[in-house]
Amino acid sequence: MRRFDVVVVGAGNAGLAAAIAAREAGATVCVLERSSRIARGGNSSLTRNIRFPHSGAEDLARLVASPTHDQLRFLADACPDPYTEEELLADWLRVSGAGTARPLVELVVRKATKTINWMFGLGHRWTVIENPLPGALQVHLRGGGAGMQETWYRAADRLGISIVYDALVNRLEPPTPDHSWLVQSGASYAVEAGAVVIAAGGFQANSVMRASELGELWRNVRLRGTALNDGLLTICALELGAQRAGNWRGCHAVPYAWLTPPHFEPGSPRTAHSATRYAYPLGIMVNASGQRFVDEAADFGNMTYASMGRQIAVQPGQRAFQIFGSDAVDKLPAWYLDDSSTVRAASAAYLAEALGIDPGALSEEISQVNSLLRSGSALLPNFATRPQRSRTILPLEPPYLGIPVVCGLTFTFGGLRINSVCAVVDSDDRPLGTLYACGEAVGGLYIDNYPGGAGLLAGATLGRLAGSNASRRLTAGYV
């Protein structure tokens, strides 16, 4: 049986950050990845944005690979001011809601700049986003999540990190006087480790756990990611006495195209991105009864999109419809217009008939919203919201465009409790030996909602800390 100083379970963004940091700290490292090498990348490969504090346009420009003059000018216009740690922290806590583990979020925020610089040093680069939706981040990772993952893999390869594929970990045995941690994959492969880092994601792909923890209506919901994140390692840790943390009934769920498969594979990031339906702040969203059920422009879209899927899931038939007027059409992403389920109509009545919506109620909603927009009202009706600093709804004038949407589940919010060095703790907040966790396996970062791009930041930051501390714990030191 082979032995490593640190074994990381999961080769997504958080897991590879943990593995590389552990190796840089001097540990021998093995990564056990459930997928095949061909399908590697996990949910991380289907992402694109990472949120982080910055000091303005020049700070962002240094991260961009070979920026053009036009891109530099765009950044100068779009980002004249810094996005400070304090602003990031305030956004995160406000959007996530009461009960968020503030010390854990503060840890991520205070280490964020160091993490981004570390990623840059490992080869990660960014690109400027063309025609972003209002409030969207101005840069995203070059090549999206797939490009980010390939950069991580190249760095891991340079450092001589062993990655074992097709390795479904189904047993986690704590140290005894006779052996270190025993990590078992199937019946034929096992390794010993001085420390273990759980980076295997949430439980969103486990239909039984979804029904038990989130509620029965989530049993058959569509996944925005892969079908591999079943929470098995989280269950293993709980059986060892780990403490639960965060909102186990909460999740990141988004408006998703009507015509989508039950889940996506890591090799299909472009298809997965084109299935998202995040332009709802430019119009209204109604259910089959023709009634609005959310305040579409209560905040910037990238601060609300992760909660919209849950709102859609509880509507009749677990579906909704995004409605836009003619002024919004040229501002919509191309995939909105390419969607075969998209309906164009010269009147609200024809639109309602084509989509199967109550025509009278839809016409009433459109009339009411238009009346408020003409009056310059700062609040939209029937919703208890704060004054809008980001109202983007455009007048709903014909011809109309309507798009059916469903809920797409990205990841679950409930997970394991960790301390300030990313060690998993028991019910008395005592570390479970040299067991660590990072990424979506960690609970407490999000309660009701999620600020766009925070997941990759938390994954990379806590992954780096978990890997470094797992390595240094073996030599009695922490970072």
What's a quick, concise take on this entry?
The chain has 479 residues and is of the alpha/beta class. It has helices spanning 13-24, 57-61, 69-78, 85-96, 102-121, 144-158, 207-214, 232-239, 269-274, 301-313, 334-338, 348-355, 359-375, 454-473, and strands at residues 2-9, 29-32, 126-128, 139-141, 162-164, 169-173, 181-185, 189-198, 222-223, 244-245, 251-257, 284-286, 319-324, 343-345, 400-412, 415-416, 423-425, 431-437.
Describe the structure.
This protein has 479 residues and is an alpha/beta fold. It has 2 domains: 2-250 and 413-473, FAD/NAD(P)-binding domain (3-Layer(bba) Sandwich); 252-409, Alpha-Beta Complex (Flavocytochrome C3, Chain A, domain 1), CATH 3.90.700.10. A hairpin with a 5-residue loop joins strand 17 and strand 18. The radius of gyration is 23 Å and the shape is globular. Helix 1 runs parallel beside helix 6 and helix 12 crosses helix 13 (359-375). The chain is 33% helix and 19% strand. It has helices at residues 13-24, 57-61, 69-78, 85-96, 102-121, 144-158, 207-214, 232-239, 269-274, 301-313, 334-338, 348-355, 359-375, 454-473; strands at residues 2-9, 29-32, 126-128, 139-141, 162-164, 169-173, 181-185, 189-198, 222-223, 244-245, 251-257, 284-286, 319-324, 343-345, 400-412, 415-416, 423-425, 431-437. The strands form 4 sheets. Strands 1, 2, 5, 6, 7, 8, 17 and 18 form an 8-stranded mixed β-sheet that branches. Mean pLDDT is 91; it is low at 378-390. The longest helix is centred in the first third of the chain and has 20 residues, at 102-121.
